[in-house]
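Annotated sample (chain length 648).
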Amino acid sequence: MSHFTRSDQLPQEKQAPPTGDLPQDDPNDPNGPPEHAPDAAVTRDAAATHDAAATPDPSATAAEQKSAPEQKSAPEQNSATDEPTDRAALPPDRGWRGRHPAVARAAAWTTTALAAALVLVTLLLPNDPNRLTPSEFIRIPVEGIAGAALLLLLPQKARRPAAVLAGVVLGLLTLLDLLDIGFVEVLGRGFNVVFDWVLLGDGASFLQDSIGRTGTIGVEIAAVLLVLALLVLPALAVVRLSNLMARHATRAAGTTLVLGTVWVLSAALGLQIDGAPVASRSTSDLVQARMDGVSATLKDERAFAKEAASDPYHHTPGNRLLTALRGKDVIFTFIESYGRSAVQDRLMAPGVDATLAKGTERLRAAGYSARSGWLTSATYGGSSWLGHSTFLSGLWIDNQQRYRTVTAGDHLTLTSAFKRTGAWRTVGIMPGVTKSWPEAKFYGLDHVYDSRELGYKGPKFSWSTMPDQYSLAAFERLEHGKPHDKPLMSEIILTSSHNPWAPLPKTIGWDKVGDGSVYNSIEEAGKRPVDVWQQTDKVRTEYGKSIQYSLNSLISYVEKYGNKNTVLVFLGDHQPVAKVSGDHASRDVPVAIVAHDPDVLKRISDWHWTPSLNPGHKAPVWRMDTFRDRFLKAYGSHPGSATPPAAH
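Output written by the structure step:
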């Protein structure tokens, strides 16, 4: 009975073989199997295998029973493209990958290559624009080797979070490298992660003044997108590469070992490519340098606070200060970006030197004499307020934190020394100040005329809110030309030579300045920043013209409105940006003293300054922070002296 029952079932098994089981020819059977007729034994074996796979093993754990079918059903994948190689095991509808397998493989290979290239670039990117050469990017980064080894050792659950974190860190380090490059190009120094963030806001304000609000918004959007890309793309790249290494751990471990060996040998032998070491550890060095920089910054902040609190003139009474200048109208004038390059560069110097030579003769004809020298500024390319505060306070203020520290205290400045005497009215002409300026109290200024109080009705000239000639005319109208019972001590900032040097104002008759509306046609006819900045020579040429304009305005003012009591001290606050001054320019700026009274210059005869507006090559070079004490000693008492020098 059972025999007939079994024979009745066999045809049914033959008619419905398991899906995917196809008959195969037996090479040992000369006749071969019947076409379309699977062997019953093979069918039974396949069915038994299928049943065994579907039936849980009672001796296996629950986790093993759960994972077994999943492991069996997972198709084998291509190493770099993530493409399954067993295409028969895939569902028939696979989207565009199924319709275009070659394109899918090429896209996957390309994505993997781009991920590797991105990680390599972020590891090798230098933070100095002068080192942005191809040889920097064909080295072996030790951080990449160490990172690969770590990812291979981590378990699967920890590997992905570690890869994401590593990618984000690489993105942040790349962002700091780019900030370093930008700061070196503009300010001649790297980005300080402690106190330079505030300068980004100043940069945005400068952009708005230079290219308008719409252009600035576009730049800001692009900057935000760049930051997001730097945080996301390296993380995705590291995750992709870590997954690839995990699938092929043996090959990845071997490759990592080989690269590590090559790195050690290259380091030991000192191998280089165009001066760059093959065995790179630039990322580690930069991280260490940033950590050291943060530590040094915090220490410097504490040390500078003590330095600022210690002032040899702190307790000097007013009746012993500046006694040799009593009755004089003293003007301290800063010319924006007026540096050594303006008077010594082959392209810019001829025009500026001619202006200074003619100016010296014009002032001599009006009864004035001049002496000039060099000061080394605490800043470069920007951050003018650091140069101003260094010059006036006698302290080296080369970062924002130092500036905040000193302006929050009561350290004596040149301007506040005049106020302490009670013998001068002290005023400031600040066309670059567009909002409240609390530092006026620190500088001892009785009144500050900012851009809102100078009465200007004309157009802005890019960043500069008004032409220098107008600022000086407003000073004459509002203060110097009025009757007053005290002489004036004035601090005047001239801004027409501020970056981007287009469009530029022109010198006009003093009687035509008026409320500034006359400058509308001059501004409209001027050049645009976007046109000037396309070529370096154009930028340098326009910079030189801006310095000539500022100097001409100041010299012309002294000619027309100066008198026998006028004493003018003018200087540059810093060198222009590297695009103008060059990559290896000094931080020196010209400084000059002009006076009608011969005794004023006689008191500084031991300074050995050049007897003209243009300092000679052999003129002394002093740090800018030393000027305050030299000036106070020359025209008043020395710290701790019992009696002041006699006035003449």
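Annotation: The chain is about 50% helix and 10% strand.
Annotation: Residues 198-247 form the longest helix (50 residues).
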